[in-house]
């Protein structure tokens, strides 16, 4: 049992450190898990469910930290229900969602929201709008990062830090 846990932890760490310089895990990462674990269903499920649990735990932590400062903001920012489906149902839904190559660059947290919208039987036009908005957001963010002047960003950060001291 300990050996299996160590193998899973090493696999998760390898996935984290071998990722390209990207902002989010997305469908490309999600789909590559199966290949990286040599198509072993049990290991694939453990890694994917661990990732989903981590996303949900991080979201809860963010909500609680924000709520302690500003409850209205926390409710507005974290308003989407992302735990309607079980973890197993979410894994299956994400596997299906990422079969479409057009969805491959949508971040996993957005795909989790989409899976829960499908699970709650939200009207399809609302789900499709959310998917399109997610695609547009990722595309614009990627474009902004590609054209970002990092030296200016570092200089601004340095000046801001210098002003504090």
Q: Output the structural class.
A: mainly alpha
Low-pLDDT runs of 5+ residues are: 16-21
C-alpha termini separation: 52 Å
Quaternary structure type: single chain
Write the layout of secondary structure elements.
Layout: H1 2-17, H2 27-36, H3 41-69, H4 71-77, H5 87-97, H6 108-119, H7 124-146, H8 150-164
Helix pairs in contact: 3-4, 3-5, 5-6, 6-7
Structure explained in plain terms:
This protein has 165 residues and is mostly helical. It has one domain (2-164). 75% of the residues lie in helices and 0% in strands. It contains eight helices and no strands. It is globular, with a radius of gyration of 18 Å. The termini are far apart. The model is unreliable at 16-21 (pLDDT under 50).
Give a concise summary:
By secondary structure, the protein is mostly helical. It contains eight helices and no strands.
């Amino acid at each position: 049992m300990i050996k299996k846990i160590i193998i899973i932890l090493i696999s998760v760490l390898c996935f984290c450190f071998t990722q390209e310089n990207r902002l989010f895990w997305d469908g490309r990462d999600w789909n590559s898990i199966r290949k990286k674990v040599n198509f072993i269903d049990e290991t694939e499920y453990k890694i994917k469910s661990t990732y989903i649990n981590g996303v949900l735990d991080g979201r809860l932590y963010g909500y609680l930290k924000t709520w302690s400062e500003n409850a209205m903001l926390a409710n507005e920012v974290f308003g989407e229900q992302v735990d309607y489906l079980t973890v197993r149902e979410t894994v299956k839904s994400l596997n299906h969602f990422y079969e479409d190559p057009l969805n491959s660059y949508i971040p996993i947290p957005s795909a989790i929201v989409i899976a829960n919208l499908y699970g709650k039987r939200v009207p399809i036009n609302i789900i499709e709008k959310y998917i399109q908005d997610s695609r547009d957001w990722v595309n614009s963010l990627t474009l902004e990062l590609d054209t970002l002047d990092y030296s200016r960003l570092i200089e601004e950060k340095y000046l801001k830090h210098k002003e504090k001291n």
